[in-house]
Design a protein that fits this description.
One of its GO terms (biological process) is phospholipid translocation. This protein is an alpha+beta fold. Among the domains are: 144 residues, no CATH class; 153 residues, Calcium-transporting ATPase, cytoplasmic transduction domain A (Distorted Sandwich); 217 residues, 3-Layer(aba) Sandwich (Calcium-transporting ATPase, cytoplasmic domain N); 229 residues, no CATH class. 44% of the residues lie in helices and 16% in strands. It has 43 helices and 38 strands. The strands form eight sheets. Strands 14-33-32-31-15-27-30-29-28 form a nine-stranded mixed β-sheet, with helices on both faces. Strands 17-16-26-25-24-23-22-21-20 form a nine-stranded antiparallel β-sheet, with helices on both faces. A six-stranded antiparallel β-sheet has the order 3-2-4-13-5-11. The N and C termini lie far apart (90 Å). The N terminus and C terminus are likely disordered.
Length: 1276
């Protein structure tokens, strides 16, 4: 088999799904200006679409009923992935099966339209959405494919569309052009072969990156490039954007597809320009295409994000499975009864239609069960999936519209990249956070340094330290050499201001920018950089250096090195900067570092980031030997190049001399301590995962409130001190530990905590806080934290995971320091595997794996780029916005979706139970009680649309939710959707079904005088009552009613009446004149109102009793607000709340100096930051309104309808003061609830019109004024 045929063989096998793409050839051979040899590679056509006009319908149906079209499987994976995808679409397949059964007239008791109508509607909506999204992708692809570029072909420069570019083409780009494909730089307009690219489209970083042409090609002219016949050997297309281990031969062999070439030139990531990046600061450049179309590196990174299901989704699925099992049980039971009656009495009850057209015995046996299956198919609501999809999309819009999470300084709003996880935001139990850029500003300031055992910058700014300035001005060897090393060892790019020609620096690392800027201010200025040279100015003296090599920083190496040669002295030296643990082990043995270690610990204790600077003078012979024998061979390797280079670097990064230590300050973001405190108050455990050293991490943990005052920190691997004051937090574990020692340390810490490590609190411990189910119910975990270092964590994850989980369940926070990106992800996975809902938040590319591993990933767009924000489920600009995301959007989303799911199951069971009850009086024949119109319109039109308005529901105002994080625990524990709540709604549906069916059928079934009412009339009496009962139930259960809710809830009534009138007037239909006769009967109206009253009044009464004797915290707060704001019963129904636009979060809680209503919107501050000309005003009755210029009309809402109705019925009975009622409600001793109530009073105390109310209630005054009175009050 020839090489060309071999390539085609691999591609065919990949398409058949028998092999992953990476299992194919590992090397790609690209020939310059040789289309014949490169014909096997695809052109530069970009295609991100899923469908074509021909494949749209069959492919979309296949996705909805089968698996998604993803190219991620081989035969081994096929069964598992396809089975999982099929299970996810089991509900779609179920309703398709029901629809097919209804096509058989002898089986179906109803018109097939009743199922097919709803099925077609739901799938059409999904198909339209998919088609619209795919059409937008097609338009974007078309725009990209039709861009014009200059290419060298046939000894001429021609302009072609991007989609016609082929591998091996030499492309000419101008300044600011977007790069059409992955290409190797051959030559640029810069004599040094340098060009710059901006990778904002790739990784979000706006800083310029340097790219270099190989020395052998950088001087080639356009005429020479026309004749260029070089060959590049590079890896097969892959997703590694920071790696390009390739090589170039200047002259390819003339024999086609011969892979042996000589005189290889090393190529790396410094030589490649990636698709979608932009050329900057160069007039023109030439490059050779190596990866095109969807095979570029950015194309390979376009993966389907991991599918994440919320905890609520799993609960809904379990309930659905339970209902399906219940349905099958009823089918089996009623089918057997019906078959028995059919076989014994079919001749006497011939009118029931028992005898089918077919006479086969096996067919007769399954008729009745199949009829019951079709009748009971409504138990699983067909509209549930599309309803939840719609409201989840609305939740994402609310987050995007929330002005409170908009950060003006960076013009960064909150962005919901996922529309599927809003409910999990309301159930978070663990938060894993990065430190730098997430908790801190990531704005680095050079604060202090240690040079030759002397610390500078202690008394004030280091730039004003006279002793340091004098030493630099006098050319002190130690000081000048220290800052000279800082000015030479970096990846910073200098630029000059067009205004005053001053130098400023751009760098991808804020640390490097801070260091080089500080050195410049102190007199050692970095002035120029080329690919092979560096220029610095030391006290007005210009120094030129050759840049021989750069050993880049990586998260594994934790250091960076450069090899430079001084032009004046020809001295070669290697300069290294990095973490102390990496640099110290590479120092010459003659270095005395005790004083530097002390300084590093002192810097870390005040939260400063430290780096060590070291250098070594290299003998020229040693350098040349290393270059020839180690570096060249490693740099030209196509396999394991990075590993071989790292080994080569190690040979020179040794025997270093320490020059000094830098200390950089990174300030905390505003609001971080308060946010972490509130997260902990909400029973959310916060873990900090950072690459910083131990002492720095401990100090930041204290300053950000992760470790509260008086909290004790235990370090895994360190001996437990007898007294907390004896613990030395300046150093971590100083030696390598065995797995046995680490396990023993964990157990010792656990025993110490359980015996005397914290404050006992027997009443308020929840087993849900204990991951490992250890015996932690006897100790409070609010005053204990643990710390673990990266090298210890590696052993813990391998050998002591269960012990570590048990220990973490006893503490309030965990600090993981010196951890790698992979360790971050492993820690998150470890906790997530215990069925805890985890949130990970970070800002850099090293946090992406952690963010994608968590149940919910939150990215912060910062100075390290947008990698984390783009890979996350939600993107915010500041850590403090996490409160709004969880306490408001998350809580509201969970409660709303829970109610929607409960209501959907309720309404489906309601009508299905009536169908089942009817079978008792129809001989279990499997006939339907309702006509096809009722069954078809019920789930979609009359009950599906009104529930959409529940996305505006709010049980409590946002100000109370933010002031009282304790309220988050209700949703965190999943109390709104549980088997208990589901059973309540199920019993309600059964009760309503019994009332409706009995009130409808009983008067006519047991009427001995006879009646002229027909079958259709009886069913329409029930169905009319169902529609009204459903609407009233939804209205009563809603906490918030806006004009949109009114329109959706009550709008179904006239629509129903209109439909009935139309059907009533068509003589060819079964419903002809049915309603005309019914409305003339007084019995119809009597039974109609009787059903409504009997169905609703008992429910309201039960809720009244529950609120009176067993109220929830929400109900207590609403009662307080009702009493306080209304000052009694007067004006009760005149109190309204006004919302902003439907973003559910554009207003801020009132300040203590305002006199607005507690539940009014105080958004004056937001008006100052709003660019949409939003208008805020107060109406005459004190209501606060907001009109957004860029959104829909603002609805006015009436808050807590259910509370109003129940309070109206009970107001006279609730005459005792609130404080006395609290004792009956059994909250004695619950300090969190009492504090919550006190906070609620504080929110409303400043209202002037309520002052008289407080004066007349001294008991509430004591609750408000003195917290000690809460615990000692005789009322409690």
């Amino acid at each position: 088999m020839t090489d060309n045929n071999n390539m085609w063989y691999h591609r065919v096998v990949q398409r058949l799904g028998l092999m992953k793409p990476e299992d194919g050839p590992t090397i790609r051979i690209v020939y310059a200006n040789d289309a014949e040899r490169n014909i096997e590679y695809p052109t530069n056509v970009i295609s991100n679409t899923k469908y074509t006009l021909v494949t749209f319908i069959p492919k979309n149906l296949y996705e909805q009923f089968g698996r998604s079209t993803r190219n991620d499987s081989i035969l081994i994976q096929y069964l598992f992935i396809r089975l999982f995808d099929t299970f996810r679409r089991a509900m779609n397949i179920y309703f398709l099966f029901i629809g097919i059964l209804q096509l058989f007239p002898s089986i179906t008791p109803v018109n097939p339209v009743s199922t097919w109508g709803a099925l077609v509607f739901i799938f059409t909506v999904s198909a339209i959405k998919e088609g619209y999204d795919d059409f937008n992708r097609y338009k974007r692809d078309k725009l990209a494919n039709e861009r014009q570029f200059w290419v060298l072909r046939n000894n001429a420069r021609v302009q072609i569309q991007s989609q016609h570019i082929s591998v091996g083409d030499i492309i000419c780009l101008q300044n600011n052009d977007e790069i059409p494909c992955d290409m190797v730089v051959l030559a640029t307009s810069d004599p040094e072969g340098t060009c710059y690219v901006q990778t904002a489209n790739l990784d979000g970083e706006t800083d310029l990156k340097t790219r270099l042409a190989p020395k052998e090609t950088m001087g080639m002219s356009e005429q020479e490039l026309h004749k260029f016949k070089g060959v590049i050997e590079c890896p097969s297309p892959n997703a590694e954007i920071y790696k390009f281990d390739s090589r170039l031969s200047m002259q390819a062999n003339t024999k086609v597809n011969t892979y042996t070439h000589s005189n290889w030139i090393t190529l790396s990531a410094q030589n490649i320009l990636l698709q979608a990046t932009n050329v900057r600061n160069v007039d023109h450049l030439y490059g050779m295409a190596v990866y095109t179309g969807n095979e570029t590196k950015i194309g390979k990174n376009k993966k389907i994000p991991p599918t994440k299901w919320t905890k609520l989704d799993h609960s809904i699925n379990r309930i659905t499975v339970f209902i399906f099992c219940l349905q099958l049980s009823l089918v089996l039971i009623f089918g057997m009864i019906g078959e028995f009656i059919r076989s014994s009495e079919k001749e006497s009850v011939w009118y029931l239609g028992y005898t089918p057209d077919y006479k086969d015995p096996w067919y007769e046996f399954i008729i009745i069960p199949l009829r019951f299956l079709l009748l009971n198919s409504l138990m699983i609501p067909i509209s549930l999936k599309v309803t939840i999809d719609v409201i989840k999309y609305a939740y994402a819009l609310f987050i995007n519209w929330d002005l409170k999470m908009y950060y003006k300084q960076s013009n960064a709003p909150a962005v919901a990249n996922s529309t599927a996880l809003s409910e999990d935001l309301g159930q978070i139990e663990y938060v894993f956070t990065d430190k730098t850029g997430t908790l801190t500003e990531n704005i680095m300031l050079f604060s202090r340094c240690s040079i030759d055992g002397q610390v500078y910058g202690v008394e004030g700014s280091i730039f004003e330290d006279q002793s340091l300035l004098e030493q630099i001005n006098s050319n002190d060897h130690h000081s000048v050499n220290f800052f000279r090393a800082i000015s030479l060892c970096h990846s910073v790019i200098p630029s000059r201001s067009p205004e005053d020609n001053s130098i400023f620096y751009k760098a991808s690392s804020p640390d490097e920018e801070a260091l080089v800027t500080a050195a410049s201010k102190l007199g050692i200025q970095f002035t120029n950089k080329t690919p092979s040279a560096l220029t610095i100015q030391v006290n007005d003296t210009i120094e030129h250096y050759q840049l021989l090599h750069t050993f880049d920083f990586t998260s594994d190496r934790k250091r960076m090195s450069v090899i430079v040669k001084h032009n004046a002295t020809n001295q070669i030296k290697i300069i290294t900067k990095g973490a102390d643990d990496m640099v110290f082990k590479r120092l010459h043995k003659n270095n005395d570092i005790k004083l530097q270690i002390k300084h590093i610990d002192e810097f870390a204790m005040i939260g400063l980031r430290t780096l060590c600077i070291a250098e070594r003078v290299l003998d020229e012979n040693v350098y040349n030997s290393w270059l020839e024998n180690h570096f060249k061979e490693a740099s030209c390797s196509l396999e394991n190049r990075q590993e071989r280079l790292a080994e080569a670097y190690e040979l020179l990064e040794c025997n270093l001399d320490l020059l000094g230590v830098t200390a950089i300050e990174d300030k905390l973001q505003e609001g971080v301590p308060e946010t972490i405190h509130n997260l902990r108050q909400a029973s959310i455990k916060v873990w900090m995962l950072t690459g910083d050293k131990y002492s720095t991490a401990i100090q930041i943990a204290h300053s950000c409130n992760l470790v509260e005052r008086g909290c004790r920190i235990y370090t895994i691997g360190k001996e437990i001190p007898r007294d907390d004051h004896e613990d030395d937090y300046s150093t971590g574990v100083t030696r390598e530990l065995s797995a046995l020692e680490i396990v023993s340390s964990i157990r010792d810490i656990q025993d110490h905590i359980l015996t005397n490590g914290g404050n006992y609190d027997l009443d308020n411990q929840s087993s849900s806080n204990n991951i490992g189910n250890s015996n932690s119910n006897s100790i409070s975990n609010r005053d204990v934290s643990i710390a673990v270092e990266g090298h210890v964590l590696t052993t813990v994850l391998k050998f002591a995971e269960s012990e570590f989980l048990q220990l973490s369940g006893l503490v309030s926070s965990v600090i993981c320091c010196r951890v790698t990106p992979n360790q971050k992800a492993l820690v998150v996975r470890m906790v997530k595997n215990t069925n805890k809902i985890c949130l990970a938040i970070g800002d850099g590319g090293n946090d992406v794996s952690m963010i994608q591993e968590a149940n919910v990933g939150v990215g912060i767009g910062g100075r390290e780029g947008l990698q984390a924000a783009r890979a996350s489920d939600y993107s915010i600009a500041r850590f403090k916005y996490l409160q709004d995301l969880l306490f408001i959007h998350g809580r509201y989303s969970y409660l709303r979706t829970s109610f929607v799911a409960n209501y959907c199951f309720y309404k489906s069971l309601f009508i299905c139970f009536i169908q089942i009850l009817y079978q008792i009086f129809s001989g279990f024949a499997g006939t339907t009680f309702f006509n096809s119109f009722s069954l078809t319109s019920y789930n979609i039109l009359f009950t599906g649309l009104p529930i959409i308005g529940y996305i505006l529901d709010r049980d409590l105002p946002q100000s109370i939710l933010k002031r009282n994080p304790y309220l988050y625990t209700f949703t965190q524990e999943g109390k709104a959707f549980s088997p208990k709540i589901f059973l309540r709604w199920s019993f309600r549906s059964l009760y309503h079904a019994l009332i409706v069916f009995c009130a409808t059928a009983a008067p006519f079934i047991y009427n001995t005088g006879g009646t002229d009412i027909d079958y259709d009339s009886i069913s329409m009496i029930s169905f009319t009552a169902i529609i009204f009962i459903q609407s009233l139930t939804l209205f009563i259960e809603s906490n918030t009613i806006t004009w949109i809710n009114h329109a959706l809830i009550w709008g179904t009534i006239p629509i129903y009446i209109l439909c009935v009138l139309v059907l009533n007037s068509i003589s060819t239909l079964d419903m002809y004149s049915v309603m005309t006769h019914l409305t003339d009967r007084s019995s119809f109206w009597g039974s109609f109102f009787l059903m409504i009253c009997v169905c609703l009044v008992p429910i309201i009464s039960i809720e009244y009793l529950l609120q009176l004797y067993k109220p929830t915290v929400d109900e207590i707060i609403n009662q307080i607000r009702s009493d306080n704001h209304r000052g009694g019963f007067g004006g009760f129904f005149n109190c309204t709340q006004s919302t902003t636009s439907l973003n559910d979060g554009d207003y801020s809680p009132p300040s203590s100096s305002t006199s607005h209503h507690l539940f009014s919107s105080n958004i004056a501050n937001n008006n100052n930051n709003n660019n949409n000309n939003d208008i805020s005003y107060h109406s005459g009755n004190g209501n606060h309104h907001m009109i957004r210029n860029s959104s829909m009309v603002v609805p006015e809402e009436h808050h807590n309808q259910r509370s109003k109705i129940i309070t109206f019925l009970l107001y006279r009975s609730l005459t005792t003061p609130l404080a006395k009622r609290l004792s009956r409600r059994k909250i004695r001793g619950n300090k969190e609830v009492i504090e919550l109530i006190v906070n609620t009073y504080e929110d409303t105390y400043d209202d002037d019109h309520n002052q008289s109310y407080y004066n007349s209630h001294p008991e509430t005054q004591s609750l408000l004024r003195d917290e000690e009175a809460v615990e000692t009050s005789p009322l409690l």
